[in-house]
Amino acid sequence: MNQLKINEQAVHKQNTTQGKLCLSLGILSLFFGILTGVPAVISGHMALKQIKESPTILAGKGIVYTGLVLGYLAIALSSLFIILFLYSGFRF
What is the pTM of this model? Predict the structure, then answer.
């Protein structure tokens, strides 16, 4: 009977630190653009690798994917702004 209760206990997965960092940098990238967008993408891919290597212990794919999307979005918008700025010949 005791063994049955042990097997029924829920395993609590922990969010990765890299995933939390990715989300934080992704949110900051909305304000700082490419400066925090690139680190958000790098830490996001590192977090996905950690989750893939130990799926029974680590969780947080949603947090990581949100940070990645925000990071990639910031990189794309910053790059577009830089291209438009250079194309206009610095005449704002």
Answer: 0.79
User: pLDDT tens, 12-21?
Assistant: 788 888 999 9
Q: Which residues pair with 58 in a beta bridge?
A: 14
- C-beta neighbour count of 48 within 10 angstroms: 19
Contact 57, 13 (CB under 8 A): yes
Mind listing the pLDDT tens digit for each residue in 41-76?
Answer: 999 999 999 989 888 888 889 999 999 999 999 999
* Burial tier of 56 (Cβ tally within 10 Å: 0-12, 13-18, 19+): exposed
* Ramachandran region, residue 60 (left: φ > 0; alpha: ψ -120 to 50; beta: rest): left
Q: Of the candidates 40, 42, 34, 41, which has an alpha carbon nearest to the alpha carbon of residue 77?
A: 34
